[in-house]
Amino acid sequence: MRTYQRAADLGDIKKAVKEALEVKANPYKWDTMGKNKTLLMVFFNSSLRTRLSTQKAGMNLGMNTIVLDVNAGAWKLETERGVIMDGDKPEHLLEAIPVMGSYCDLIGVRSFARFENKQFDYEEVILNQFIKYSGKPVFSMESATCHPLQAFADLITIEEFKEQERPKVVLTWAPHPRALPQAVPNSFADFMNVADVDFVITHPKGYELAPEFVGNARVEYDQRKAFEGANFIYAKNWSAYADPNYGKILCEDRSWTVDTEKMSLTDNAFFMHCLPVRRNMIVTDDVIESPRSIVIPEAANRVVSAQTVIKRMLESL
Ligand code: CP
Fold first, then answer.
1. Tens digit of pLDDT for each residue in 207-222?
2. Could you give the CA distance from residue 116 to residue 55 in angstroms, rounded to a whole number?
3. Atom 1 in ligand 1: which residue has the minimum CA distance?
4. Is residue 119 domain-shared with residue 159, that is, in the same domain?
5. Based on the domain organization, do 181 and 312 belong to the same domain?
6. Are 154 and 188 part of one and the same domain?
7. Global confidence as pTM
């Protein structure tokens, strides 16, 4: 595997989950696979889980890991071609990327949507420049439109916790004070569309996700109706995708917050969220602290998803 952005990059998803569960059961089985290999993790944005879990995954495989926070200690990077560089950015990404590539064997990149230009975001310009110019396998650690390490961990978690052959999984929009990218819901939908689940997305009108990610999901605008009989509730905020409101907040309706009363409409559903989560905006304290909240094992599975992806990339070197 040379790149990792979408569920399809994993091939047969059942095999990928099976492999991930093998990795989880025996995380040090491949601890010499990455000997003398270097994983470079490049962060243009903040992170807790991705930074720690991906580094741990690389170490479990015997890799050396380097973390670069572009905004903390590195030269400020220009990303646009054609710019006269007389401002505060002394280095261009087009030199920086091959230099970074020369110091490592694999690269993970975190680069969020900027909401300045929808085409720039949805063409994944930054991630694709790494793919094109680094000369090394590249994986997304949450790029402008996708968060595939998160979604793979989410699917692994659903497989571990499910109590039905084909569970009903509901992705619900929830309110948030800041405009957030669509990367997490996009990737969650991408993975649920290839998983053996009954997949429903619920959000207020205006928050429709890109059709390429919605796929065959049922979209239900009535959140309470969507929750009926659900086995997993996956909460997340995102900003509008559709023009002319791309990247905007259209609604701050707190009635969309996931609370105990709404969870009572489900079939005793598990509660999931990628974290970090704003309590009592997205979800109430009661729900996230309930015995059916699986946000901590979900986060723990980030090591498993990252290790499985990095292992496959090492195998392809
Ligand atoms: N879920 C997730 O990606 O968390 P971080 O932003 O902390 O990495």
1. 999 999 999 999 999 9
2. 31
3. 274
4. no
5. no
6. yes
7. 0.97
Range of the domain at 177: 150-299
E-strand stretches of 44-197: 64-69, 77-78, 91-92, 106-110, 138-140, 168-173
Task: Based on the fold, state whether residues 133 and 186 are members of the same structural domain.
Answer: no
Q: Are 201 and 223 in contact (CB under 8 A)?
A: no
Q: Which residues line ligand 1 (CB under 6 A)?
A: 47-50, 142, 150, 274-276
Token output for 238: 């995102």
One-letter amino acid at 17 equals: V
Residues 12 and 124 in one domain: yes
Rounded average pLDDT over 172-181: 97
How far is the centre of ligand 1, averaged over its atoms, from the C-alpha of 142 (Å)?
Answer: 8
CA distance 1 to 16: 12
141 Cα nearest atom in ligand 1: 3
The vertex-139 CA angle with 133 and 142, nearest 5°, equals 110
Of 284, 137, 193, 114, nearest to 126 (Cα)? 114
Of ligand 1's listed atoms, the one at least distance from the Cα of 48 is: 7
**Sheet with 64-69, side-by-side order of all strands:** 3-4, 138-140, 106-110, 38-43, 64-69
